[in-house]
Amino acid sequence: MRPELTETLSFLHALSKRAGVVPVLFGTAVLEILGIGDFHAADIDVIVDAEQARALASAAGVDPGGEGGNDKFRSTVHLHLAGAPLVIDVMAGMSIHAADGWVLYELRETVEIEADGRRFHAVSLADLNRFYRLAGRAKDRAKIAALDVLTA
Fold first, then answer.
1. CATH number of the domain where residue 9 is located
2. Which residues, other chains included, contact 90 with Cβ-Cβ below 8 Å and sequence gap of 6+?
3. 29 falls in which pLDDT band (50, 70, 90)?
4. Total structural domains in the chain?
5. Virtual CA dihedral for 42, 6, 90, 22, nearest 10 degrees?
6. pLDDT value at position 67?
7. How far apart are CA 18 and CA 73, in angstroms?
8. pTM of this structure
């Protein structure tokens, strides 16, 4: 695993323990940790509920702010946590702007994965594939193809 990812996961693990939160890893980081394809995470995406997001913000010493997002994604609480090589992007109550309008993205299944000798909760591959399909971004086509091979 890349040193940047290892250091960031270590930072997230320590921060989560201080906050008393069990975050769910999400996005490209999951693919990279599991060695699926040749993907490299630019950040670490984490899904939690709003209370957990505020606890992480408090443990990190940052203002939890409020709703955040863009024209494709929005969250009731959205944090960008610095302090590690990769930014940790924390989302609570995430919605995706899909073809039929805004859709609340809810995890159906989480799994445990190991990274750098630590156990983390992560989104299931089926849920991750569903997310990429809902998002409908061109940059996710290769991720969908890689997940389709594994979840078929």
1. 3.30.460.40
2. 23, 46, 48, 53, 56, 57, 77, 78, 79, 80, 81
3. very high
4. 1
5. 150
6. 64
7. 28
8. 0.91
pLDDT value at residue 78 = 86
- Burial readout 70-88 (b: 16 or more C-beta within 10 A, e: otherwise): eeebbbbbbbebeebebbb
Residue with tokens 């290892």: 6
Q: What is the average pLDDT value for the chain, to the nearest integer?
A: 90
**CA pair distance 140, 112, nearest whole angstrom:** 23
Report the pLDDT value the prediction gives residue 15, as an integer from 0 to 100: 96
Of 17, 121, 119, which is closest to residue 60 (Cα–Cα)?
17
Residue 88 phi, psi dihedral angles, 5° rounding: -105, 120
Identify the residue whose tokens are 């999951």.
30
The amino acid sitting at 80 is H
Sheet holding 95-98, edge to edge: 68-69, 73-75, 95-98, 101-104
Question: Which residue is listed with tokens 């991750």?
Answer: 128
Q: Of the candidates 37, 25, 33, which has an alpha carbon nearest to the alpha carbon of residue 116?
A: 33
Instruction: Give me the domain span that covers residue 90.
Output: 3-151
